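User: Modeling request: complex.
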Amino acid sequence: MSEILLQIDGKEVGATEGMTLLEAARKVGISIPTLCHHEKLEPYGGCRLCTVEVESRGWTKLVVACVYPVEKNLVVRTRSEKVDRIRKMILELLLAHAPDAFALQDLAKEYGADKDRFEKEASFCIHCGLCVRYCAEVKKKNAVGFVDRGTRREISFIPEIAAKECWNCKECFPLCPTEALQAAFVLTKALFSPPHPGPEPRG
Amino acid sequence: MARLNSPEKLEKVRQKILSRRDPNTPCISICAGAGCIASGAGEVIAAFKAEIEKQGLQAGVNTRETGCPGFCERGPVVVIYPEEICYLQVKPEDVPEIVSQTIKEKKVVDRLLYVDPTTGEKATHESDIPFYKNQVRNIIGSNIKIDPKSIEDYLAIGGYSALAKGLSRMSAEEVLEEVKKSNLRGRGGGGFPTGRKWEESRNAPDEIKYVIVNADEGDPGAFMDRALLEGNPHSILEGLTIGAYAIGAHEGFIYVRQEYPIAVENVAIAIKQAEEYGFLGRNILGSGFDFTVQVHQGAGAFVCGESSALMTALEGRAGEPRPKYIHTAVKGVWDRPSVLNNVETWANVPLIINKGADWFTQFGTERSKGTKIFSLVGKINNTGLVEVPMGITLRDIIYKIGGGIPGGKRFKAVQTGGPSGGCIPEELLDLEVGFDELTKAGSMMGSGGMIVMDEDTCMVDVARYFLNFLTDESCGKCVPCREGIRQMLKILTNITKGKGREGDIELLEELSEVAGDASLCALGKSAPNPFLSTLRYFRDEYEAHIKQKKCPALSCKELIAYHIDPNKCQACMICLRQCPAEAIAGGKNRIHVIEQEKCTKCGTCFEVCPPRFGAVKKISGEPVPSPIPEDARTIVRKSKENE
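Assistant: Request completed. Predicted assembly structure:
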């Protein structure tokens, strides 16, 4: 496969066709923050934290590094005033939901994000979808999924599948950047534990 | 019906249909579009059928249930051919008179005609009514002429002749060139050049390609695609098939929202008929070209109007947009090249092929060619669908066609482009309507929603309304959209409730920037537009809400109070009796006073106070005057004094 040369933060970087900007950058030790990325999973482009600036054919645009494919002669800036501003705001928005998540706190420090900027609505889950996608793509079980949409979106275990599959797996737990997943599982466990024998049917 | 295997056979069938039809036979066309059905067209249709039978006229009179001609404000709409007499707001009880007068005696029933509210003049024919007179109805004009369930009706007005022409006399490349030459731009919102999209798909190496109709119309107040799909489904199929031929696709989809049951039904009937006649299926009209179409019903998510979300839903998965740094024209449904065009875009295709790109480009402006259908709604006299040449001014649409603002109110703004669009103020009413012009003004063409607002509309509340809509309709996948819109809505809601704070505007601007720059799809990227455009033109309203806790339009409930002017109150008891909260103190000959702590601000007193008194006032941003003392409340009537 032919090598594609591009420039990331002023550095000449060689990549192969089909690689994403994130992969090319990480290969040479340039770090780009991510929350929803996992190397075993299809790129998702949900958290938008890996937004970078690219310059191609005279145009500058903002793209997400985890999805954007490498291109010959592309000029990539992983930090800029604009990029930093976007990351700061994304972190502040997420900190309203998971103010105590270490993954967010570390990034908040780097980007100067104020965890109290928005009113707290502690739902803990930041909808990165790692658990949902890992269960679907790697384990192929679909025991956990998203329900509803928009601001009402939540993760939820599917009791019928989770009752069979989750006890001995729990591989998604360490993926969760906020530990919300564990809470959701505990709740579901309570809900789908075998029901108490009900009253005898009348008749 | 045997499949037609050549353009010549099609022409023969067409001539046979026309020869059976006497243009002088009276025909009663009744709009059976969703709007008129909701206004009782079903009963009117039944009444006509019964009356014709009762008067023994079955042999000499036809009735036709047609698609929507656009004048929804005055539905049910009835047009009598061949004279083209147009009756509006027809009720079942009008039917016997229409049949005995107009059909039998050839006399016009005056009271059912359109009356111009300014001149008082009556208009007998559809084409005399100002609402229609100022339109150019290239596309929607056929709706009233055909029964959408009848392929014969479509053939009678020249249907499928463009397909025959394309397949027999033009190469696929020539069809593509003609569409490119027409400069047709996508009618669904983005305004992307249709021909370029087609070419991109055509040139994509994959052998399997798809064409798709986007009928997932979801903008609040927009219904032009519904009217086309309901009213003239064959024209959409014909356009789609021509497009498939140009691109090299053999399978097509119609993605239509299930909330459009009449459209779903009519398009399914049309597909079946087209298959029987040989306009779909194998070897269409003997050309060797194969093409099939399936209907896919959307489950009611606004975001599925976005191309990548629509395609994901079409594949049977949850309708979420996916990042597309490669166009869907190259990598779309099941990763195959897929051309997705809006209903109205497809509807233009047969016209372009039949009449040529040069005919098409005579309408419109330099960069926006052809006509565009808008759904004109809100505070406007003539609500309905209007088709106008691009380049017409907003003023002409609103005043010449729309008939202006009802109730003598003042125009304030027009919202175009749906939730992704923006509000355009009075000083820009002479703006020529076109893709680039609207974008420059901070709004967009969108799919053609046009919501007119008058002086009573609060622009902060308008922004709040659209953000609220988007909170429900965002798919929730990406952070800047899901969380950004959530926060924007919170701030806007606070402002309309009088809880706005210094710095709110700046924070909204910052959230807008991030949502606009970093969201995954067009929904999130354009979500701040309702805020940004209202801020651009009505910043003073935002500031009044935040700084003075005042709603200049007197619309935000939490910021207004009702007050009865003691000098004007005639103690007529009307408001006092009608107040549902029993918040009005007073009595006969006792000046009425609103007890503010009991008032729910429903506005009933304001509405019922006789205009000649005009005693009830709405106030905002200032303290409510203290009630006049009890002993000063008695009214001594002059007439009584003299007795």
